[in-house]
Amino acid sequence: MINGIILYTIAIIYLGISFIKDKHKTKAALLSSWKMFRNVLPDLLVIMLFVGLALSLLTPSLISSIIGENSGLLGIIYSTIIGSIALVPSFIVFPLGHTLVQNGAALPQVAVLMSTLMSVGLATLSMEQKTFGRSFAYARNISAIIMSLLFALIIWVVMT
User: Fold this and answer.
1) Fewer CB near the last or first residue (10 Å), C or N of the chain?
2) pTM score, two decimals?
């Protein structure tokens, strides 16, 4: 909460400085950013709806039953798929990972799930394609999946 207040205060100060230096450019920049926000808003609403549905359907106990200690490589694949589809902020991912481990999920499966939840964005892919381009969006998501699987493999080797 304090960090947010500090960041908003800094942004307001810089906006004030910009307004003092050149009112016309600042107004044009604010208008341009408003138009960009308005264009992205429908995608953001769809993403928020999808995240809400995913969080209500994918409970920790359901996920733990799929990625338990005995699930092995299949559990890692399930975790990768679930994590790639769902989009969850980091302040929810870490407690979720802790809860999953407490409910019997294996560490490599939880590691790949947590990593893909935060780094792979199939839910945001359309918006990412519009913003950064199709090839970049696919390359970023594929590399994030590969790195997440590599991370899970390292944990699997270290923990066994």
Assistant:
1) N
2) 0.65
